[in-house]
Amino acid sequence: MSKLLVQECRHQRSENSFQLHFHNDYELLYVCSGEVRMRIGNDSYAICGPSLVFISRFEEHAIEILRAPYERYYAIFCAETADRLIGDARLMSVFKNRPSGFRHCFPCEGLPAAGLLERLLEEYVRPGPYADEYGACLLRELLILTYRQDPGRFPFPEQAVRREIYEVQRYIEAHYAEPLQVAGLAARFYIDPSYLSHRFKEVTGYSPKQYIMLNRLSRARELLISTPLPVGEVAVQTGFSDVNNFIRSFKRETGLTPAQYRRPQGR
Fold it and tell me: Do 134 and 128 touch, CB atoms closer than 8 A?
């Protein structure tokens, strides 16, 4: 059974900064007022309102408040449900793809972002019939208006790309815990392996191998935080056949061992 589209939605004011954290889902942040310095992965931005920020499933992020009060809306969307209901690779590219030069922050003066997110919040608090479909309509409208204002900021290739590249991306997202190899993916989708590797990275910003690993580690981080599963079981559930390889890969990506990451001070 698929998860609800909107996992969390809030409108808040704060004077406290936020330590490094992540969600194994998409996050949309709308900075209404105030000024913050936001670290997303290896990037850092000084952000004033009104601005939209799009954060992928793989990106840890932290916020330092530079000028209070910091007022914002934020919404956490189930990645699988959002991809299914929106169904448009170009619009969803701001949540998924990170080619060189991508910027997470979109100035949005003149867009009705606050109104759309207030309606999304009302639906989250008091859901009615077809809540997911209505939420998807609101998200789609916001994405379309953002695209109309600045289409060049959406990380979508200008040249035509075979639809199989997007099918490979979706396949990895659904099957990352299985043994996956580039050659096998290429054969499954009848694509030349070198074409797949080149075009996949051009579209997403990641090689197929990196994308497989990021999906596995994102799910591993979620399990480490939300369950008491032993590290070895987390490794198995996320597609690692060898726990030592899992520990090495996890530390290379996060700078911490799985056991350190699990401790509150590790995050």
Answer: yes
